[in-house]
Design brief:
With 429 residues, this protein is mainly alpha-helical. It has 21 helices and no strands. Helix 7 (103-117) packs across helix 8, helix 8 (125-135) packs across helix 9 (140-154) and helix 10 (165-181) crosses helix 11.
Length: 429
């Protein structure tokens, strides 16, 4: 009799989320179930596991509480930018429509936390609507770790940077895929001289939040959190495929532009969209996407002065991983006494990584400045080399040359030579 009484409680215990793996094993069956739609009552917990956000939360040395505390400064530039946007993000939702809405303080803390944790990003408007939509389905702390996972793991590192390099590259990748997979759409766009990125950049930036109905968005996110950013390309191809015939019957570029802009809002049957997305883009792989991304990133950087030389051959693309800020915790007296002379290996490794990234940033900045002066004085380009020489011999007279050029005065050529002296020493150090 006691065994029978205990069985329901035992089953109830076994069915709690604490007993579900932090990361779910990737199988075709799970992928198929996710595409069919996650039951709404399970969505928040499943998103945390599918995306890797729960694992990130549990492994993090810095707690959300500490991040909120560290990012609470009202005087930071990012804090002021966030404050301006808070009421514009989801103005039609009661939780976010007025300063006293229940969602506003939560959204403020999440956006400040992300801006603080990832200084390379700061605050980007596209992140606001994603965070607000996440808050509609999950508690604040989990929504924060979902955001951290999106910007750090699911999307390229330079997606939300001030230059938006990553998302610009993805728009070029999208153009390449349209040319390969949807030739008639590509011909229509070219014939009417339509720049599709003016429409689709917003779709990618917000992960389709605010451009599709909420019932469609949650299904898109089910799939996105399982398969990552490749889904953005597959869905966009699917949406364009749905409009392919209609576009051919339109007469002018304004009609075509408006028709393309309206596509997400007109999606009513998510299964039809997914079917089209897989029919057109099912053969896409992450390797193909990554290859296209690297090529287009190189060309974008060359256009903006970040890369010099042949974009196909230059390997120094933007940082592949975002820099993370750490909450500095003072060591206990015991730690100081016991380990006074032994540097923490993890701390040392993080410091070295950060210093390397600073040097990468410095080198990119130096190249931009040099490129700027060459643009002003084109005749200098003939005998100024922007490629750094890292050989030991080339540095024998560095200091002597630097002093000599400095004494020559502030002429553009002298400035460039000094800039290139710095450039050649960025990695020599």
């Amino acid at each position: 009799g006691n065994d029978q009484l205990m069985t329901p409680n035992k089953e109830a215990t076994e069915l709690t989320w604490e007993n579900v793996d932090v990361m779910l094993p990737r199988t075709e069956k799970l992928r198929s179930m996710v595409r069919e739609g996650i039951p709404h009552s399970l969505r928040a917990q499943m998103w945390m596991r599918l995306s890797g956000a729960l694992a990130k939360k549990q492994k993090s040395e810095t707690s959300y509480h500490d991040i909120v505390k560290a990012s609470g400064n009202d005087q930071l530039m990012t804090s002021k930018q966030i404050e301006k946007d808070l009421l514009r993000i989801l103005p039609t939702n009661a939780c976010f429509s007025n300063p006293h809405g229940t969602g506003i303080p939560r959204l403020r803390r999440i956006l400040r936390g992300i801006a603080w944790l990832f200084p390379d990003i700061g605050y980007c408007q596209g992140t606001g609507v994603i965070a607000a939509c996440l808050l509609l389905f999950m508690e604040e702390e989990n929504a924060f770790w979902m955001m951290a996972t999106i910007v750090e793991d699911l999307l390229p590192a330079s997606y939300y940077s001030s230059t938006l390099l990553g998302i610009q590259a993805d728009q070029r990748v999208m153009q390449t895929l349209i040319a390969n997979y949807l030739t008639s759409v590509d011909e229509t766009l070219k014939k009417h001289d339509i720049e599709l990125s003016l429409i689709t950049l917003h779709w990618f930036l917000t992960l389709f939040a605010n451009v599709v109905h909420m019932k469609i968005l949650v299904r898109i996110w089910d799939w996105f959190f399982y398969d990552g950013s490749i889904v953005l390309f597959q869905l966009t191809l699917g949406m364009l495929k749905l409009k392919e015939n209609d576009l051919q019957n339109l007469e002018n570029s304004a009609q075509i532009f408006n028709s393309l802009s309206d596509i997400p809002g007109e999606v009513d049957d998510v299964q039809i969209l997914f079917h089209q997305a897989l029919e057109v883009g099912g053969s896409l792989s992450q390797t193909v996407i990554d290859t296209h991304r690297r090529r287009h990133l190189a060309y974008l950087m060359a256009d903006q002065g970040g890369l010099v030389g042949n974009p196909e051959a230059v390997p120094n693309l933007p940082k592949q991983h975002l820099a993370r800020r750490q909450v500095r915790k003072s060591k206990s007296i015991l730690e100081t006494l016991l380990f006074r002379g032994e540097p923490d290996s993890v701390e040392l490794k993080n410091k070295n990584i950060r210093q390397t990234e600073i040097l990468v940033d410095l080198r990119e900045a130096i190249l931009k400045v040099a490129r700027h002066f060459i643009t002003i004085e084109p005749k200098l380009a003939a005998h100024i080399q922007l490629t750094a020489n890292y050989s030991t011999d080339s540095h024998a007279k560095d200091h002597e040359n630097f002093i000599k050029e400095r004494n020559n005065g502030p002429a553009p050529e002298s400035l460039i030579r000094n800039i290139l002296y710095l450039n050649s020493n960025c990695y020599y150090i």
